[in-house]
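Researcher: Re-running this chain for the archive, since the previous output was lost when a drive failed. Same request as before.
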Amino acid sequence: MNYLSEMLKLPVIDSTGESIGIVNDLGIATGEVFPHVTSLAFQGPGKTPFMISWRKYVDRIDDTGVYLKVPATDIRFSYLQPDEVLLARDIMNKQIVDTQGMKVVRVNDIKLSASGENQLRLLGAEVGMRGLLRALHPALEHVAVKLARVVGKPLSEEIIAWSYMDLLERSTRTIKLSVSHKTLGELHPADIADIIEQLDPRLRGQVFAQLDTAQAAEAISEFDDDELVAEMLEGLSDRDASSMLALMDPDDAAALIEELDYEKAEKLLRLMGVKEERAIRTLLGYEENTAGRIMTSEFVALPATATVNDAIEGLKKLDEDFESVYYVYTTDPAGSLTGVLSLRALIVADRDARLNSLAYRDVVWVSPDEDQEDVAEEMSKYNLAAMPVCDENRHILGIVTVDDAMEVMNEEHQEDLQIAGVGGSEGSSGESMHMFSWFARRQYWLLIWAIASGIIAAALEMMGGFADLFIYPMCVMPVALLASSRVVSFVRNYYLEYDESDDEDKPYLAFFLQTALVGAVMALVIYLCGQLVLGAAYPDGIPVPAVAEGARDMTSALHAQLLSGCFGCAAAVTFACCALSVIYLKVLFWRDEHDLNTSGIALSVSAVLVSCVLYSIASVLLVFWFVA
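Model: Regenerated structure tokens:
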């Protein structure tokens, strides 16, 4: 008896041997690392619920039941204490936070351990497949374990220790779960964001509400889903939401404000302090995807004539929530940027040294209208942790920090993966592990082929009862479909490798000529392959209708013509797809200019569908032409 699922429904037997009910739950006190079972909940006659003290009344437990020390007449019933939770009601089949693995999991079973003759301790939650199978029926677990062992992939238990569990449900969220584990609010903001994103929608607001304003501000800036951000903000009062945004870095707050509707955004901004409101409105005044949008107004700049000691004392006076300081910038009397010093240079320098004698003068800076991707590339090129953003007079407006640059590069990488037809989760492992996802992404053309073949057969039947001849268009169609898919892959790769700085005008004409030439070569190869197939099918020579003798020869000649014609249709469609692929390139550039995401899979499916329609029409007309 190691699992709660095995103990539920066991009979409860008093000292006289009389069954007085069946087990339906166990209670534990939560103030221990491995809590003792403190209460036994069982269902008595007439389905009446009862609860008794485990320590006081339970004598032993085994496979046959829970045996009590006293007769039923001597039992005094108790109630659930404030520091107790019921395992089946409050934990089983509930979502919990694994604060060690930093993820949200579902409890499938609960593992317990005997401690003495009549004591049980809670060890942890089973969150793996074995717990799910055991909850359905123990026999299923045994069969699955044996099968897994036979195929060489043992089905191991997945136990999360109680000391790393954090409950989320409303009825238990105020309970102190452990004396030793890290609570949700003490996790890194990025981990908190990941956990909340994994939760059921009904629990997200409850968990987010447990965070204080500072924790909420840090966590919400780590969310990847804009809709989730809006959902969390909607769940807060306007004053709380405004206070939270005011605590955030200005660039992060501006990004969140931008996702809200105008009235809501204005209301939150007006509730802020003047300084925070001005900083956020300034950033919102710049165009999207520019350096001005992602820069922060929190930076350290001092007159070039200041001393190292002045700089160090100024750094000491900064607020605790000030943006991370990487460099100290120097300015002339007019406020223009003249140099930059690293913190290391300040620390090792003499306290009386002037900043202008230590500063690096060839400072790399960008304008606020610079594209975000170009800024990130510049920071990567020069290995900078921060880059100043200046106006035309070199007055510092703000700085772009490395975390924002990395976020821009990550977004660009995800867009490239999407255009390339690879999901974000596949970026490191190639193919998706899910069978249906893999089929949808890579083998969708099979479905298109099957549907189109059926449509061709129906069309030929309607045009004169020639449905039996659909086999020829069907057999050759994959050549055209796969060729169009490869053409789109070529377009995507060309687009991803294209460097806009190389040419001012888009190379549409050169690309058209290149793909038209490739299309002509591919069409010739397809046609010649068709002739090779005919040669293999008719080793004694391809029959010609004009010299055919008898019905059999006429039929063979017709079939040879149809097969050859279908290869010709495939060759023509392939050439057309290659020559017109410049349209796909234009679509990619246009959507990029308008900051629209493009799915590589959608582009490939569109190209295959176009190719399928063209080939189907051409092959049906071809069959009708030869037969008629």
